[in-house]
């Protein structure tokens, strides 16, 4: 795992714990952790996570667009690592800017 991925995973882990509260308090979140089966995330939880992603990364990371590209089976089996990799790719795009950064 790259340093960037480790940082993103740590940020994402904080967001997931904030969304799920006590339901994920004792759950170790790794790149292989699944949102649905292991974390038990419901649709409303995913919406809350998407909002936190938007707040943290701005328009650089579009969670809805990422999920829309997946078929139903892949959405059901979505792993944290897949989202980490998507965030890393999105932030690496030339026009990507973190939230709060004003273009010049």
Short synopsis of the structure:
The chain is an all-alpha fold.
Stretches with pLDDT under 50, minimum 5 residues: 100-104
Distance between the termini: 32 Å
Structural class: mainly alpha
Could you tell me the mean pLDDT? 84
What's the SSE pattern? HHHHH
Number of strands: 0
Largest sheet: none
Strand content: under 5%
Radius of gyration: 13 Å
Q: Determine the number of helices (DSSP H or I, runs of at least 4 residues).
A: 5
Helical amount: 40-55%
From the spread of the alpha carbons, the general shape counts as: globular
Question: How is the topology of this model organized?
Answer:
Blueprint: H1 3-20, H2 43-57, H3 63-68, H4 72-76, H5 80-92
Structure description:
Helices cover 55% and strands 0% of the residues. It is mainly alpha-helical. The longest helix has 18 residues, at 3-20. Residues 100-104 have low confidence and may be disordered.
Main attributes?
104 residues; 55% helix; mainly alpha; 5 helices; 0% strand; disordered C terminus; single chain
């Amino acid at each position: 795992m790259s340093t960037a991925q480790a940082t993103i995973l740590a940020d994402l882990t904080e967001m997931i714990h904030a969304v799920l509260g006590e339901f994920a308090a004792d759950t170790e979140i790794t790149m292989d952790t699944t949102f649905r089966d292991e974390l038990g995330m419901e649709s409303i939880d995913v919406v809350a996570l998407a909002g936190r992603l938007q707040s943290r990364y701005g328009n650089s990371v579009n969670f809805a667009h990422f999920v829309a590209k997946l078929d139903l089976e892949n959405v059901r089996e979505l792993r944290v690592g897949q989202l980490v990799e998507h965030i890393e790719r999105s932030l690496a795009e030339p026009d990507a800017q973190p939230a709060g950064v004003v273009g010049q």
